[in-house]
Amino acid sequence: MPTISQFFGIVIQMFWREHAPPHFHAMYVEHEALVDIRSLEVIKGSLPRRAQALVLEWAALHRAELMEDWNLCQSKQLPKKISPLD
Length: 86
Prior knowledge:
Shape: globular
Strand order of the largest sheet: 1-2-3-4-5
Mean pLDDT: 95
Order of helices and strands: EEEEEHH
Largest sheet: 5 strands, antiparallel
Number of domains: 1
Low-confidence stretches: none
Distance between the termini: 24 Å
């Protein structure tokens, strides 16, 4: 599971053999959430409120790059790193 970004203790990963809808995994301490790239909604799991707000802010800024990484993963290619939230 390649890590595509890290910021403020949050790890963003994307898996090669994933199912639709296009999504990524956000992990913070013992919490994990799956976030739909198109709608930016949490579709499974949960994060603390502040961590979720940071993840959604980051995802909104990098939605096109996330879709590009999703397409790379679907074709079994390594996704590209995405700059963290500053």
